[in-house]
Amino acid sequence: xxxxxxxxxxxxxxxxxxxxxxxxxxxxxxxxxxxxxxxxxxxxxxxxxxxxxxxxxxxxxxxxxxxxxxxxxxxxxxxxxxxxxxxxxxxxxxxxxxxxxxxxxxxxxxxxxxxxxxxxxxxxxxxxxxxxxxxxxxxxxxxxxxxxxxxxxxxxxxxxxxxxxxxxxxxxxxxxxxxxxxxxxxxxxxxxxxxxxxxxxxxxxxxxxxxxxxxxxxx
Length: 219
Prior knowledge:
The protein is α/β, with parallel strands linked by helices and about 220 residues long.
């Protein structure tokens, strides 16, 4: 599912990395932090920038986040603030709540009170998380190194019924299909086998070519 509106609670290194990438994508982004200086820096680029005490239930509720689709709770060092923001985000009906955890125990607590996804940061994880939220045709995204990544995605509608040999995805996208998940992952990919809608592809690709795989590009 693709999300267009976000709230990012906490603008440390991780929170700023997520917020910056989401803003860059053109999404509607609300940022909330207790630092007036940080909020002032985001007031000209975020959709909404609010100073608030993230440990204060009343202050968080007063922000008004019921219209937001996805919340990112980015305070990995403050369990109290993370708990408050996660609980209120869920109570407000936000569809997806992604919470940063400083350790596994914290992650377990946040999961128990309603967080849909737990991440263990810092900055690079923030960028990767933002990408996975924005590029919604990717079912999974795994970073291999600074240049390469592995993504899982369903075949585009235009690909269904065609073979990998016909599509020549390596030439069009610089993409290497390393497996097709058809019930099980097979270690051999038949280039003459027509692709099926319900058989996701595992693709090794250079990061610079990720946008070419966007679902809005049909070729």
